[in-house]
Amino acid sequence: MKAMKILVASMLAACSTWAAAQQPIVIKFSHVVANDTPKGLAAEYFKKKAEDYTKGRVKVEVYANSTLYKDKEEMEALQLGAVQMLAPSLAKFGPLGVKEFEMFDLPYIFDNYDQLHKITQGPIGQSILAKLEPKGIRGLGYWDNGFKSFSANTPIKQPSDLKGKKMRIQSSKVLEAQMRALGSLPQVLPFSEVYQALQTGVVDGTENPISNLYTQKMFEVQKHLAMTEHGYLGYAVIVNKKFWDGLPPDVREQLDKAMNESTAFANRIAKHQNDQDLEKVKKSGKTAVYNLTPAEREAFKKALLPVHKEMASRIGPDLLQAVNAELAAPSKKK
């Protein structure tokens, strides 16, 4: 009888081990924007590719629109292992102590996507991601959103039009310096609170790629949008390093493949999405869209470029020198 009990117990244990082995590896992927933004669409694309390539061994749960964690909470949640994957905006890493990421916040550092991708898809971008490792974070890639423009309830045609305005920003010393260079009053607010803050007059205006302005309905509470395209907003897709390193090598390889394809997808759709959403903003009739003249754009650049020198010691003069050298070098033919 005792031998029978032992046999049954061992069989039950074996079944339990087998069942556990069949459980999919769950990746909770949290982000703060809407599903129909470039980041939201790319997260869903990654979910599909990851689950397909691993043949169901991995299940990706996407939590959009701050439903799981807000701006200020998500990074700590990742480091503690409460979520496995995030795609925070690049401005989030300065407060974490990796100030090199604030290079991406500098106004007018990139003139176009080609220049941007020379950095994000090259060795400089990879070296910046590697600086996250001591924080328990593994950087998997960069996803574009787009170039930011200023909005407010009064017309914006020249830098002085933003003087004295309370402008919402992400938590970034570079963005603070940018707003002060315009004579504005920078106000740090979580992304999920921006619409209400604009609606109630807590802040007068903000800066966003058009896809964020449209999908978060900020255009409903902003009468004027100036296409300054003065700064870049992108994301770093990151994962808890301990979780990533503990994955079976073949699963990690398939997830890498899914991420590479998702990055190409995200960057392919970003400009298209922003262009589409700009047309929707125009058609709404709620926000007047103003295209700067070349002279007006130069006036904004002249006002904002001194921020590069002001922030050089914080970001790292060697990094800025390397970025400027890379951008000045002729592009290699593919």
From TrEMBL:
Keyword Signal present in the record's keywords: the answer is yes
The record's annotation in InterPro entries points to:
DctP_fam (IPR018389), TRAP_DctP (IPR004682), TRAP_DctP_sf (IPR038404)
**Sorted alphabetically, which keywords does the UniProt record give?**
Signal, Transport
* Gene Ontology terms: biological process: C4-dicarboxylate transport; transmembrane transport
What CDD domains does its record include?
PBP2_TRAP_SBP_like_1
PANTHER family linked to this entry: C4-DICARBOXYLATE-BINDING PROTEIN DCTB (PTHR33376:SF7), PTHR33376
**What's the family?**
Belongs to the bacterial solute-binding protein 7 family.
In its UniProt entry, what is this protein called?
Answer: C4-dicarboxylate ABC transporter
Q: Which organism is it from?
A: Fluviibacter phosphoraccumulans
